[in-house]
Specification:
This protein is mainly beta. The chain is 10% helix and 35% strand. It has two helices and nine strands; from the N terminus they run βββαββαββββ.
Amino acid sequence: LFLTSHQTLHPLMAESTFCGVGLKVEKDRQRNCFYIAGIAPGGPAERDGRIQEGDVLLVITNKHQHVLTPSTDIEYVKKKIMGAPRSVCRMVLARPGSGKFEVALQRGAFTVATASSSASSTASRPPPAA
């Protein structure tokens, strides 16, 4: 799951072709970088446990390595984080005072709270019929 600052968390349906790793990434125009603005509860990033809010995203590697620069567009970052369920997204991040580190997260389904209620929905199941 990938969110810009203007979106809210919502469950991914089973028929979705792409999914994410449970990160909300935003662009800091003053520092010219992309940073982790949120981590979805129960998502791949939270389960891994190494990424924290405020970490700076430097590189995304899928089939190719994508080095993020000040001119990189947020939509480009979104496309590189999203991918097929169970595929792996590798990222290099930096934490102020701690240096760089790499994570490899498997994209997949996880539970998120919807914006309209505090109830959670399992992302791998479609919603119940009305």
